[in-house]
Amino acid sequence: MLFKSFSQKLFLLIALTLILVVSMCSSIVYGYARTDWALAYQAFTEFNGSNEHIILTTVRLPRALIAALVGASLAIAGAIMQALTKNPLASPGVFGINAGAGFFVVAAVSIFHVSSLAAYTWLAFLGAAAAAFTVYFVGAMGREGLTPVKLTLAGAAIAALFSSLTQGLLVIDEAALDQVLFWLAGSIQGRKLEALASVWPYLAAAFIICAFLAPKINILTMGEDVARGLGQKTGTVKLFAAAAVILLAGGAVSVSGPISFVGIVIPHLARYLIGNDHRWIIPYSAVLGGILLTVSDIAARYVIMPEEVPVGVMTALIGTPFFIYIARKGFDQA
């Protein structure tokens, strides 16, 4: 833990929030269509209908907002999952929740030809919930019950299952492949404010739930016996935490597709900076997750310009070495 006092933690959080704002502004300014900061300012103060102004206000602004919101959602979901499971590798990607949400959306597109954004959102929630409960059920089987290793293996198996089913559907239906292939790689390119409007109320509700749960999660991480001794209803806390994770992961996937590694990397970075108090970890994870995905999205525009790399590829390049590092350390630390 680098920052210990309240004032230090608050100052750093404010500084990181400013960095997030600058990152979002940079996301609006930089890209294939050449614009600058003055032109961006004019687009929001003196809109004239030019192509540059339209790009800035209808393409890049939603993209910046979505990147920040999706990054924050995935990071908070990872922080909650790591705390509840005491598993340093826990995240929506590793535990198959993203894959489950993605499969349900692809199945709806391929089989029922669904195209509604609102339907995508609810299908992603349903898929996330199905994957989460399946992983929990499989991981709890056996005499030892839930353990970090069993949960990780169960999550990897369920993620592989849903990914295989998704690929099978796409092989059968080439039209669906064309529609969702870039989305499945994890991308926020071309997303409109309508996509954000369909999901932000659920993400906001999940943020509020996590904020209220933070003190209770601190107690729960001390052990269930201790939590029960202090009068905590651990089952209720876990139920609300699971609901928050499903809303966060499902909502993020419905907008951007399954983006991996944000939920692994960011909670570890937050704990390294400010310790294990979830009253701080949750807001830090939100801000750091937003920064990571926003900056990754900016970088994705320049790698093979004029084409773009899906932002999920960029987060994988960042997160894979970190994942290997954590896995080699073992499960001693959460």
UniProtKB/TrEMBL annotation:
CDD domains: TM_ABC_iron-siderophores_like. The chain crosses the membrane at residues 64-81, 93-113, 119-139, 151-172, 199-219, 239-269, 281-304, 311-328. One of its GO terms (cellular component) is plasma membrane. It is found in: Cell membrane. It holds the Pfam family FecCD. Its main location: membrane. The keyword Transport applies. It comes from the Bacteria. GO terms for molecular function: transmembrane transporter activity. This is Iron chelate uptake ABC transporter family permease subunit. One of its GO terms (biological process) is siderophore-iron import into cell. The keyword Signal does not apply. Belongs to the binding-protein-dependent transport system permease family. FecCD subfamily. Keywords: Cell membrane, Membrane, Transmembrane, Transmembrane helix, Transport. It is a multi-pass membrane protein.
